[in-house]
TrEMBL record:
It comes from Geodia barretti. One of its GO terms (molecular function) is protein kinase activity. The lineage of its organism: Eukaryota, Metazoa, Porifera, Demospongiae, Heteroscleromorpha. Gene3D superfamilies: Transferase(Phosphotransferase) domain 1 (1.10.510.10). This is Probable serine/threonine-protein kinase kinX. Keywords: ANK repeat, ATP-binding, Kinase, Nucleotide-binding, Transferase. The keyword Transcription regulation does not apply. SMART domains: ANK, S_TKc.
Length: 395
């Protein structure tokens, strides 16, 4: 890699410009180190151009590169491993590897990858309105697909967080940042990693990873997906209470012992914000189970979120549902009487939109009807009562 690359000069002293001589099929790369896309624990993502095509480059923080501290050299080897892991992965929901070049001034790698539009964190925080249901479902399904692919290839991500999920312009989600990833020795569902410290971002970590000597399996990622779903639905950064409380115990050396707080309890303030009728709620509950064996695998999550996806109705803030002869249903929805809505929707209903026909199961009908009913109410659109029986139409 190194000997074929030569340094070029651009007008900007912050640019690193390299002649690639056909490496990875490209001639030139310019890394605009001052144009920062985002920052993480050990690197900056910056804008770059690869043969004039915009891309992203990940470079190590200078303080890490320059440090003599042996503790920090671990960051460098992790980054090298990240480059290797990403190089070998190809999946529509994993950020696309484009190449690795060497920074001529530090001799450290620079990771080139596709340029994404936004991080999930920023997308959720900057959206002025609720994220439409079908977008929530699509993003969630994308994440599960990526993680299932990782697990099939024996890789645990271990640091799934909204900063490490990127979105393109059409809200396709891709997983990035494999700096904490671990290649399991064999099938990750069988492997229990034993490490000395919790790998990822604390609020996304399951109880077994928060212990002094964490032991965990692929279900560490499933748990993090559960926290991500909670965040996607509520648009709030997760705010769990402490993971444990103390209880007096004269038999222990300290006179007290740590008692773990169940996840559903410590995350109650977020969970209550998920509507009771939301199709996400049972999935979130299962992902956040205290015992890892009770959580679904990533492959099972793909299936469950895929089902939500296949039945999610395209919803926009100006969409409205029209019903004919269904005033009883309207009244029940207005009262928030979910049971009556369920009963009235107990037959399959054809959904007609301008662009597509979707057949819904009963439970999904309830979810999408209520979601969109609330959507209509909040946007002030009235719901006319003239429409063909059993047919929902967008307007
Ligand atoms: N390919 C990319 N396109 C656009 N922004 C990116 C890209 N990669 C990373 N970022 C931004 O940079 C941030 C840090 O990148 P990340 O790889 O997570 O670094 P770290 O390992 O230091 O956490 C991300 O949260 C995101 O906002
Ligand atoms: Mg990161």
């Amino acid at each position: 890699m190194g000997n074929r690359i030569s340094l070029l000069l651009t007008g900007d002293p912050n640019d690193i410009s390299l002649n690639l001589s056909g490496l990875y099929g490209y001639q030139n790369v310019v890394i605009h180190t001052a144009q920062v896309l985002g920052s993480g624990a050990y690197g900056n993502a910056v804008k770059a151009t690869l043969d004039k095509n915009p891309c992203a480059a990940k470079i190590l923080h200078r303080v890490i590169v320059d440090s003599q501290d042996p503790g920090l050299s671990d960051f460098i080897s992790r980054f090298e491993q990240e480059c290797q892991i990403l190089r070998d992965l190809k999946h529509p929901n994993i950020v696309q590897f484009l190449g690795v070049v060497q920074d001529p001034s530090t001799n450290k790698p620079i990771l080139l990858m596709e340029l994404m539009k936004d991080s999930l964190t920023h997308f959720l925080e900057s959206s002025p309105t609720d994220i439409p249901y079908h977008v929530q479902v699509n993003i969630s399904h994308d994440i599960a697909l990526a993680v299932a692919h990782l697990h099939r290839n024996g890789i645990l991500h271990r640091d799934l967080s909204s900063n490490n999920i990127l979105l393109n312009a059409s809200h396709l989600a891709k997983v990035t940042d494999f700096g904490m990833s671990k290649i399991a020795a064999s099938n990750p569902s069988m492997t229990r990693s034993k490490v000395t410290q919790c790998p990822g971002t604390l609020v996304y970590m399951p109880p077994e990873a928060l212990r002094p000597q964490p032991r965990y399996s692929d279900k560490i990622d499933t748990f993090s997906i559960g926290v991500l779903l909670l965040q996607i639905v509520t648009r709030k950064f997760p705010a769990p209470t402490a993971a444990s409380t103390t209880r007096e115990d004269p038999s222990s050396a300290w006179g007290e012992i740590d008692v773990p707080i169940p996840e559903m309890e410590r995350r109650k303030s977020d969970i209550v914000k998920v509507p009771a009728y939301s199709g996400f709620l049972p999935v979130i509950r299962d992902c956040l189970k205290d015992k890892s064996k009770d959580r679904p695998t990533a492959a099972q999550l793909c299936q469950r979120l895929g089902q939500l996806k296949s039945t999610a109705v395209y919803s926009g803030s100006r969409s409205a549902l029209l019903f004919e002869g269904r005033t009883e249903l309207h009244d029940a929805a207005e009262r928030g009487d979910v049971k009556t809505v369920e009963r009235l929707l107990s037959t399959s209903v054809n959904i007609n939109s301008r662009t597509e026909d979707v057949r819904l199961s009963t439970s999904e009908c309830v979810v999408s009807f209520l979601t969109q009913f609330i959507d209509c109410c909040s946007t002030g659109l009235c719901i006319p009562t003239t429409c063909r029986k059993d047919t929902l139409l967008y307007c």
